[in-house]
Amino acid sequence: MARILLIGTATLDLVFGLDHFPGADEEMRARSLRVCRGGNAANTAVVLSQLGHETEFFGTLADAPETAVIERDFRVHGVAYGACPRLPGRPPTSAIYLSDARRSIVHYRDLPENSAEHFDSISPAAYDWIHFECRNVAVIAPVIRRFRALAPGVRISLELEKPRAEMELLYPWPNVLICSRGFAAHHQFTEPTAFLDWMRGKAPQAVLALGWGEVGAYGCAPDGAVFHAPAAQPETVVDTLGAGDTFNAGLLDALVKGGSPEMALWQGVTLAGRKCAIEGLHLEGLL
Ligand code: ADP
Ligand code: FRU
């Protein structure tokens, strides 16, 4: 099993189960409420830990009582978080509405991200794999380059979910780039293969993966053709929140064990499909 560091956000998620999405001025009662830890890198860490890896999360944590929800979940899943910088403020918080297998997310954040100095405490050679959410590019670009120089053997993946200023500075460095459909749409692509062909020109060294919701995922190796793994449809879709983060965990698990990109994509969609059949990310018994 591998030592995997995941760098990004841990959030407080307020997940409301609804019969329909609220309209303006509507007051309604939710069917259920779940208050839990979320955040892309944190979610992926929790799933990788359930797959048996030694995982660590690194991202700022608010010095606030609500952070207990986040820490408790990390402890339950054996995700290390002791190196996370503690800052005054409150956790990034999401109000999430689930209805009819669809979801809306309202996110608020005023907690600062990791600074360049925060990364001084990280020794990249201590890990087999380091995964980044693409967030504060000005900070993480030099960090990725430094990690590469200090630990040439460590493999690096980067999630490109939303457009960020100067993010193209990061493209030449990772071994794996995981892109979202929204990111492809931002670049005016509606067709996955065309997007991956374009992206391959920007990051010829990387394995590329692209989630495409209920259609599944697409991917390509640096020198190969684009392939498609259809979504693993559960009998009933209960909750797609974190499906992308679970897909990432399945993909990384297969790649870190030496699996081919095609096999890793298949494992990603299989795991994400199983996740969609349950509430939350407690996948024990489904792996
Ligand atoms: P995100 O959850 O980050 O928005 P996607 O919507 O692209 O990401 O979903 C990631 C993966 O989760 C997809 O590639 C697919 O395999 C799986 N998935 C998403 N929605 C469904 C669904 N309704 N049924 C089955 N699998 C799904
Ligand atoms: C799911 C998720 C939630 C979080 C939101 C942040 O992928 O990580 O847990 O609230 O996205 O954008």
Ligands bound to this protein structure = adenosine-5'-diphosphate, beta-D-fructofuranose
**Helices and strands, in N-to-C order?**
EEEHEEHEEEEHEEHHEEEHH
How many beta-strand elements?
14
Structural class, by secondary structure, is: alpha/beta
Q: Given this structure, which CATH class is correct?
A: Alpha Beta
Largest sheet properties? 8 strands, mixed
Point out poorly predicted stretches: none
Continuous helix count: 7
Q: How many separate domains make up the residues?
A: 1
Shape: globular
Strand content: 15-25%
What is the fold named in CATH at topology level?
Answer: UDP-N-acetylmuramoyl-L-alanine:D-glutamate ligase
Oligomer: single chain
Question: How are the secondary structure elements laid out?
Answer:
Blueprint: E1 3-7, E2 11-17, E3 32-38, H1 40-50, E4 54-58, E5 61-62, H2 67-76, E6 86-87, E7 93-99, E8 102-108, E9 129-133, H3 137-150, E10 155-160, E11 176-179, H4 181-186, H5 192-202, E12 207-211, E13 216-220, E14 227-230, H6 243-256, H7 261-276
Parallel strand pairs: 1-4, 1-9, 2-7, 5-6, 9-10, 10-11, 11-12
Antiparallel strand pairs: 2-3, 7-8, 12-13, 13-14
Helix pairs in contact: 1-6, 6-7
The structure holds adenosine-5'-diphosphate (ADP) and beta-D-fructofuranose.
